[in-house]
Amino acid sequence: MLSKKTKYAIKALVVLGKNRDKPPLQISWIAEQEKIPKKFLEQILLDLRNAGYLYSKKGAGGGYSLNKDPKDIYLVSILRITDGPIAMVPCASLNFYHRCDECHQEKTCGIRDVFIDVRDATLKILSETSIADIIARESNLIVSDDVPPAVNQPEN
């Protein structure tokens, strides 16, 4: 399950991406728009800034803005910054591997084998999906939501 920390990080990055051509956005404004607790958002944005994804400016007109193009910010990186491992079991993790305590034979473990496939499929999607892709999807969903439902024609 996606943690609130990761979900809030993605939401904040989407807002910043949509407002990329505007002055830096204040934390309180982002928090209010996305219904994110302000203190929690402060820590998330600080983590993203420290990872090089955001720029912050203090003082009047200060706030946060993207330090990278939204098309260059991939979900896989954001998940690793906010939550760590992508894999659901530690023995299937690429970057945070450690052997499961209860495992007798890792090479023949069916659970591990399945979750390596899950990890690989998840990594493929997350590595190919950027903040720009999410912004585009939202635009498409808004447009498709505006289309009136089809009217069924009576059969002859």
Structural summary, described in words:
The chain has 156 residues and is mainly α. It has helices at residues 4-18, 27-34, 38-50, 75-83, 110-128, 131-146; strands spanning 54-57, 63-66. It starts with a helix and ends in a 10-residue tail after the last helix.
* General shape: elongated
Order of helices and strands: HHHEEHHH
Largest sheet: 2 strands, antiparallel
What is the helix tally? 6
* Order of adjacent strands in the largest pleated sheet: 1-2
Low-pLDDT stretches: 150-154
Say what the CATH topology is: Arc Repressor Mutant, subunit A
Pfam families: Rrf2
Keywords: DNA-binding
GO molecular function: DNA binding; DNA-binding transcription factor activity
Protein name: BadM/Rrf2 family transcriptional regulator
Key terms for this structure?
mainly alpha; two-stranded antiparallel sheet; 6 helices; 51% helix; 5% strand; elongated; DNA-binding; TR_Rrf2-type_CS; WH_DNA-bd_sf; BadM/Rrf2 family transcriptional regulator; DNA binding
Concise summary:
This is BadM/Rrf2 family transcriptional regulator. The chain has 156 residues and is mainly alpha-helical.
Q: How are the secondary structure elements laid out?
A:
Blueprint (H helix, E strand, L loop, with lengths): L3 H15 L8 H8 L3 H13 L3 E4 L5 E4 L8 H9 L26 H19 L2 H16 L10
Helix pairs in contact: 1-3, 1-4, 1-6, 2-3
